[in-house]
Amino acid sequence: MLVLMLIYEEFESRVIIPRIYGRALRLPSSVILLSLLIGTVLMGIIGALLALPVAAAVLMLIEELRVELPGQQEQAADVKIRERDDRGEEEYVRRAEGMPAEKAAAIAVEITTDRHKEESSLPTKTDELES
Known about the structure:
This protein is mainly alpha-helical. It contains 5 helices and no strands.
């Protein structure tokens, strides 16, 4: 039973947690794993808790400042997603300007719903392969 628990713990900490945090923070799994390791080694538990927000902030700054990292090449799909995100954010700012928080939240939900409908109607890679 102890061996099974150790195997599960390793699998969870090296596979499951980086994927979940990666989706939530939009960080690659390798960055999450490396951030957690570095944060834990340098500052212990506090470092582990602060590692992911710091890594997300650093990557956000790199993206906002348009800094090219060695070996970093954006794929066309990533560019399209960013353009769509930027358009959605601009639309939200334009439509929600001066609105109370409740109405602004309703606008955000409406924009998100429209985007989900738009994305679900787009052909997927499997659709392209089948045709």
